[in-house]
Amino acid sequence: MHFKRRLYWLLILLAWIANGQARAEEGSTEAWHYRLGQGLRLGDSGLWLGGYASARVEDYRQSPWRIQLSDVSLFVGWNKGAWRFFSEFEVGDGLQISNGRALTTGAGYFDLERLYLDHAFDDRLKIRGGKFLTPIGRWNLIHADPLVWTTSSPMVVEGPFAVHTTGGMLHGSFNAWDKQWNYVLYGGGRNELDFKPASESKDANFENIRGVRLFHEAPGRFLAGISYAHYEEKIYRPGDKNLLGLDAFWTRKHYELGGEFIYRFGSRSTYRNPSARGIDQALDDAGANPDQWGLYVQGVAPLYDHWFAIARYEAFQREGKSSPAHHWLGGLAYRPLPPLVFKLEYSFGSDNAALAPSKVQGGIAEGFAASIAVLF
Amino acid sequence: MACPACAEQVVIAVIVGKNEHGYNLDKASLARIFLRKMNHWSNRQIIQPINLSTAHPLRRLFSERVLGLEPDELDEFWNDQYFHGIFPPYSVVSEEAAMRFVAESPGSIGYISACAVDGRVKVLLYLTASGVVRAGEGSRYCP
């Protein structure tokens, strides 16, 4: 009851903030400046603070319902001349209540999501060092709850590769074939800056990544990219892996269409970790295809007065399986302001036995999910 | 600019400081500058774009002619950029303030109505309803 009351007051607070910021001006040349969705800029020091928060309700068929304060992330950054520092600190699953269990903070964890320093020599060459989002596809680079239309993420970004890389990056843009292209070259070793508990960390499964991404974009309109990465999987499907990804995105007057495709190939899993072998033993077809592939296509259409409809189709074939699982999602989103979004979705799948025994952990979930997310 | 016909007659001047030189811009580059995708001049100097405030009628006209994005589409674009620590250009409330900022800040670029231009700044481009007109040395375009 107390939780519901707090959630109610939180919603009122968010609505009040949203109303007050609806007509707020963007960054001015004045001293301290705050705008919802643009953070607090501390004058001309170059320092700024911001972040986002999200809460979600999940009622999936495979698991008890739960309500979570799923993310509170704080951004601390500094931009000065050719230098740019960015950091993101996250408290995940900080509060949780689920069917038959009291409100708890026991599932909460702290993580350093990102921490890097950029130096731009010019637009053609920039260098980055630290922990950053692995540049594969589009979703992984904008995966924050306020920026995506659904509470759940597509399977292709939920397991085949590390969300983060700790290492170095060269990136920039160049002109070719009468167009501007953007490139990223990057590499990383172990996950030295991963503070998540092993049970929560997807990154702990991967090491020694080397990758490249090339994309062309008309900012705010269109993006098409291709990604390649080579890395080592440590726990679930051990071995050297190669991943090839394609992604495209188009938007116009709030209509959106986008999708990603990945194909992962490499050495057959060697199961150096006996416990991991045990988890998947019942599911593996001996001698089956060692490759993995997946895709999603998502469309968004404006309905009326800040309401949007979302539809997504996914297919995903795990390593060792001979057929893919399919997943469909339909949802609604209410975005009264660009930094604030309320989401409701229903998803269901077929051939899900092709995935993990726990379908939720395997990245596929059937049932309802709802969430609220705000950039602050 | 309450009437569409009036808006069509407005010519926007894209300005830099009078001592800046050698910048060869087209409309696509101008859009990349104001969307913070292009951040360096050809001499590696950092570009400082300055916007007029969102309430200023010339701001909307500039967005339509150069960026091709509506204000709420731009808001969504800047939300995505914010997630990577990238912010929209600073904005000022008047054309005089924009001209003063550009005149006094090396590497800066802004826009004002063509008839408001004076000797403190140099015009790189004129944006008319029908397209882009490259500014000649010492040219003035005030219909």
Any chance you could write out the topology, listing elements then pairs?
The complex is a heterodimer of chains A (376) and B (143).
Chain A: H1 2-21, E1 32-35, E2 39-42, E3 47-60, E4 66-80, E5 83-98, E6 101-104, E7 109-120, E8 126-133, E9 164-176, E10 179-188, E11 206-218, E12 222-233, E13 239-252, E14 255-266, H2 274-281, E15 292-302, E16 307-317, E17 325-337, E18 340-350, E19 367-375
Antiparallel strand pairs in A: 1-2, 2-3, 3-4, 3-19, 4-5, 5-6, 5-7, 7-8, 8-9, 9-10, 10-11, 11-12, 12-13, 13-14, 14-15, 15-16, 16-17, 17-18, 18-19
Chain B: H1 4-9, E1 12-17, H2 27-34, E2 48-52, H3 57-67, H4 71-82, E3 90-92, H5 95-104, E4 108-113, E5 121-128, E6 131-134
Parallel strand pairs in B: 2-3, 2-4
Antiparallel strand pairs in B: 1-4, 1-5, 5-6
Short note summarizing the structure:
Chain A has 376 residues and is mostly beta strands.
Let me know the average pLDDT of chain B. Answer: 88
Whole-angstrom Rg of chain B: 14 Å
What CATH first level of the domain at 138-375 in chain A would be assigned?
Mainly Beta
The portion of residues forming beta strands of chain B comes to 15-25%
Q: What distance lies between the first and last C-alpha atoms of chain A, to the nearest angstrom? A: 27 Å
State the end-to-end distance of chain B.
15 Å
CATH topology heading of the domain at 138-375 in chain A = Porin
CATH architecture of chain B: 3-Layer(aba) Sandwich
- Ranges of chain B where pLDDT stays below 50 over 5 or more residues in a row are none
**CATH topology-level name of chain B:** D-Maltodextrin-Binding Protein, domain 2
